Amino acid sequence: MRSVINLKQGWYYCDSFSDDFLRHDFAGYAWQEVTLPHANKEIPYNYFDERDYQFVSTYKRNLSIDPAHRNKRLFLDFDGVMAAAEVYLNQVLVGTHRGGYTPFSCEITDAVNFGGDNQLVVVVDSTERPDIPPFGNVMDYLCYGGIYREVYLRAVDPVFIENAFAKPKNVLAESREVEVDVYINNPPSRAAAGQLCVSLSRDDQVIAQTSQAVELDQGGIQVRTLYLTNLSEVELWDLDTPNLYQLNVELKTDLPTEDCFTTKIGFREAVVRPDGFYLNGRRVKIRGLNRHQAWPYVGYAMPKRAQQHDADILKYELHLNTVRTSHYPQSRHFLDRCDEIGLLVIEEIPGWQHIGDDQWKQLACQHVREMIQRDWNHPAIFLWGVRINESRDDHDFYTETNRIARELDPTRQTCGIRFHARSEFLEDVYTMNDFTHSGGDLVLRDQRQVTGLDYYVPYIVTEYNGHMYPTKRFDQEERLMEHGLRHMRVLSAAGLDPHIAGTVGWCAFDYNTHYQFGSGDRICYHGVMDMFRIPKFAADAYRSQVDPKKDPVLSPVTIWARGERSIGGVFPLVIFTNCDSVEIKVDGQNSGKFYPNRLQFPGVEYPPIVIRHAPPVFGQWGSQWYDGEFVGYVDGQPVIVKKFIKNPVATTLEIEADHNHLDADGCDVTRVVFRMVDQVGNLVPYINDFITIEVEGPGEVVGPKQVALIGGCIAAWIKTKPTPGVIRVRAVSSRLTSEQIEITAR
Ligand code: GAL
């Protein structure tokens, strides 16, 4: 049977490389003990030099191999190393890989020393090598370096299951079934015979199984196909009911060998048609945002819990139904979570506008294969992006990427994200970054204007806004309002156009970038949330698009001050809400009830309320200023209240952890958010203060311990140590101290 060990701990890191390392001469260099995921260099939040992490570094680790594995085949499985890796075991080169976003495996069977020490050395080139996508030209994101995802040691019998692709069929009929292609790896020297068994289960209950006798030729990967039929009792995977099933594949041969491969699958039909996107036969408007997998200080190197939490934020805080993994395959933990919670995914190969030479293109084709073979069982993924984001047309290259995708996975449509009109349509779905909207009346183009075709094709808008209106969370309130309105206008325009299957905006979170982009400080402030995943007002444009019975939303886009805006006051006042109406009280007096603006935003289910002119009580510059209270009503009942105070004072330093129970493995993290608030709990956005984050117990702060509050708040990630215990965290500012919270590491 197979054994898989996660090699999270026990690594030593050196921020350089020397040939000495390949001769096992490690002395005289500074080695630092690290855990994975690991960033080759921690960088400041902003205003750093992006060349700082672009160097060659080395990771080493001792591997102890169980003597019982003497007759096994042994592999090292790397989930992601940026950007190129050379792997040596006991001075033998056992594998190389180019490309930082897709996994690779190195067979180490013949290099292992069963009796003694095994020294693993991984040389990691994190420079922007022009031979590796996405590199070769300028690009608007950073590809931080290091072994930033997990590494596993896998021991299998000589004949083993390399992969399995489960293809649910006829899912909308009673006769639904699943076709399972099993990829069997047989050693070069021997033929084998045996039995292959596939079963489908849920909560440990087997629902269906089947088996097949197999004769395997010697050598190579061989595919066998099995069918599980009559799956009428299987429940579909859908947005609100993301039912998942476990697929087990077992192989026994006469050599004798035994192996088992397990994956989760879901049954759904997801297809984009000229008149919209259909999930399980029901038309669903795609409403999503793009996500970069980047965090402050450590870039990409965040573990499972943080990856999962991002998916939760998109689904449960922003109420989106889709995410695009711009512009590369993202962490499998993120994708697993999308499966679990019902968040659709458009996944694409690494790239940004630039297409390299023939070898570069071949590598991009390899990335198409690696992406699909890693991710083909995720029910959440419904589209493969097989173009370099926003690149020019390239007939031969993109004919080939489409061919590869369709051959490997005939069950999903392809797309290719472009930003120029009339581009050659080689994919199944035309995906366009439509940046038409820049505040005026034009919002989205008719798809025929974009495609140049005189008929409709399956069509999704995969980006809008972004650089058209960069907005910081701490920007002036009128800008924050317009930022939110621009997102809302696009949602509304798409909602009215049946030939736009949906929209995926730019973007979910602010991200670090190169100096040629962003605000000069290496940040693109394009998110509806900042890099700490703290919402801007535009987040509420999305958040409000949900049934108020599930989550009532009431977000007046204002910090409620007399003189924040030009000419003063808080009007025109926009309220992102899903309530039927909102009542405003000023100084305790009722100043009227206000209703969603269906006229201006007819295409969304929950239009914002827009109050153009101030009721008289608000007075003018130079008059009194009052407390405010907003009450949201649904079905005639008050369901949510938002209060503002006329004379805010920094009153409390709030502290809140996303997770209070972590794994004591030296890698697990939780975000902790610190908010400086006034007497009624609102952020004091212009506070000029810092906080010191104090941690006691087996945990540490990722990044600096002393940070400035940005727009009244900030977050930090607290990381466990490989020791169980209670981690106590609090923050101290120049004027306030937060409560102390406890996080248990087990
Ligand atoms: C697009 C690009 C994104 C990002 C965005 C900013 O052209 O695909 O990666 O740069 O612009 O608006």
Q: Largest sheet, order of strands side by side?
A: 27-26-25-24-23-22-21-28
CATH-wise, what's the superfamily of the largest domain? Glycosidases
Instruction: Output the CATH topology of the largest domain.
Output: TIM Barrel
**What percent of the residues sit in helical stretches (DSSP H or I)?**
10-25%
Q: What compounds sit in this structure?
A: beta-D-galactopyranose
* Count of individual beta strands: 46
Give the CATH architecture of the largest domain: Alpha-Beta Barrel
Give me the oligomer status.
Answer: single chain
Number of helices: 7
Mean of the pLDDT scores? 97
General shape: globular
CATH class of the largest domain: Alpha Beta
What's the story with the biggest beta sheet? 8 strands, parallel
Regions with little confidence, pLDDT below 50 for 5+ residues: none
User: Cα-atom Rg, whole angstroms?
Assistant: 27 Å
What structural class do you assign from the helix and strand content?
Answer: mainly beta
Main traits of this protein?
746 residues, Jelly Rolls, Immunoglobulin-like, TIM Barrel, 5 domains, eight-stranded parallel beta sheet, 12% helix, globular, binds beta-D-galactopyranose
Strands, helices and their partners?
Layout: E1 3-6, E2 11-14, E3 32-34, E4 56-62, E5 73-78, E6 84-89, E7 92-98, E8 104-107, E9 119-125, E10 151-156, E11 160-169, E12 177-185, E13 192-202, E14 205-216, E15 221-228, E16 245-253, E17 257-265, E18 270-273, E19 276-279, E20 282-284, E21 286-290, H1 304-317, E22 322-325, H2 332-341, E23 344-348, H3 358-375, E24 381-385, H4 395-408, E25 413-418, E26 429-433, H5 447-451, E27 459-463, H6 477-496, E28 502-505, E29 511-512, E30 523-524, H7 538-543, E31 554-556, E32 573-577, E33 581-586, E34 589-594, E35 609-611, E36 628-634, E37 637-644, E38 652-657, E39 661-662, E40 669-677, E41 690-696, E42 699-702, E43 706-708, E44 713-720, E45 725-733, E46 741-745
Parallel strand pairs: 21-22, 21-28, 22-23, 23-24, 24-25, 25-26, 26-27, 39-46
Antiparallel strand pairs: 1-10, 2-3, 2-4, 4-9, 5-8, 5-10, 6-7, 6-9, 11-12, 12-15, 13-14, 13-16, 16-17, 18-19, 19-20, 29-30, 31-32, 32-35, 33-34, 33-36, 36-37, 38-40, 40-44, 41-43, 41-45, 42-44, 45-46
Residues 140, 326, 389-390, 419, 433, 463, 466-467, 506, 526 line the site of beta-D-galactopyranose (GAL).
